[in-house]
Amino acid sequence: xxxxxxxVWIEHLAGVPFQRAIGNLDDxxxxxxxxxxxxxxxxxxxxxxxxxxxxxxxxxxHLKLLSAWERDDTPPPDGxxxxxxxxxxxxxxx
Length: 94
Description:
Oligomer: single chain
Distance between the termini: 35 Å
Shape: elongated
Structural class: mainly alpha
Helix content: 55-70%
Largest sheet: none
Number of helices: 5
């Protein structure tokens, strides 16, 4: 790496708690064959970068809930659709 690249990494990693950074790095190493980018290490939410499998499982869970609500004639809880919309738009932290 060039000195400038190393300086950018140090600047962005300096405020990240060590255990979170190591945990994120370990997750990245187990799930990717590519060199990590800063965002892979500094992320605070382990599901921020979801895999296709995680997304399929979430979709299946939503469909099960919808089926149960339809069967029981029960509406979804308050805020459910807003939360789903935020997740689909990639804003699940708001």
